[in-house]
Design a protein that fits this description.
With about 240 residues, this protein is an alpha+beta fold. The chain has 4 helices and 13 strands. A 6-stranded mixed beta barrel has the order 1-3-2-6-5-4. A 4-stranded mixed sheet has the order 10-7-9-12, with no helix packed on it.
Length: about 240
């Protein structure tokens, strides 16, 4: 892995105000720590940093940061971005020794066309986007290729199935990296069955309505009968009074 040379300066003014002033000057504020250093407030040129990272393949770039005449081999542990503009707001540089192993996360690249996808219409699902490895800083791979060509439907490839030269994979061996699942099938009911169900439902509704009307009619007859009897009673009482 190539090492990127970069010049940094020590930041005398800290805090939010100092960081804002640093960014206004075209610099990115950061902090340098680790391996007997820091925390040391530093800044790097924004244009130089973005250009260097743009031409670097993969993650875990090693930065040889020169500050006040001293050089610090460092890994970028964290990059903070503005949520709207995506400008870099802050950097964390972790000072390392090039002769001591480090543990880092490396991206996983799935390669090849799985048999289950090509021949049976299956779907390849990537489970792990990155794995954790331990090695010397100069041996950190840009990414790890994982060939999925032999996977049929129901097959999976796990961490234990891969090996990377000069690198110790420290992720859980049982973790699944990728698997091929069957295609999703939506079963549709035959048109005759749908029509039959609709017909039964359509016939049931008028029966309920008819029954309701019949019940209402019988109720009306009872009410009318009571009204007639009431009138006859009142008429008989009137005749008795006249007598």
């Amino acid at each position: 892995m190539s090492i990127i040379a970069m010049k940094g300066t020590r930041r005398e003014v800290r805090g939010k105000g100092g960081a804002r002033k640093t960014r206004t000057s075209g610099l990115i504020p950061g902090v340098l720590y680790g391996h007997g250093v820091g925390p040391l407030a530093v800044s790097v040129d924004a244009h130089q940093f973005e250009t260097a990272l743009r031409h670097h393949k993969g993650g875990n770039a090693i930065i040889n940061l020169a500050v006040d005449g001293d050089e610090y081999a460092s890994l970028i542990r964290q990059v903070q971005y503005h949520p709207v503009t995506h400008d870099i707001l802050h950097l964390d540089f972790h000072h390392i020794s090039l002769t001591e192993e480090v543990t880092v996360k490396v991206a996983v690249h799935l390669t090849g066309l799985a048999l289950g996808v090509k021949d049976a219409g299956g779907i390849l699902e990537g489970i792990l986007r990155e794995i954790e490895v331990r090695c010397l800083p100069t041996a950190i791979p840009s990414f790890v290729d994982v060939d999925v060509s032999a996977l049929n439907i129901g097959d999976s490839i796990h961490v234990r199935d891969i090996s990377v030269p000069d690198v110790q994979v420290v992720s859980d061996p049982d973790d699944t990296i990728a698997t091929v699942v069957p295609p999703t099938v939506i079963e549709e009911k035959p048109a005759e069955e749908v029509a039959a169900v609709a017909g039964v439902e359509g016939e049931a509704e008028p029966e309920v309505i008819a029954k309701g009307k019949k019940e209402e009619g019988e109720g009306d007859k009872e009410i009318k009968g009571k009204e007639i009897k009431g009138k006859e009673s009142r008429g008989k009482e009137s005749k008795d009074k006249e007598k």
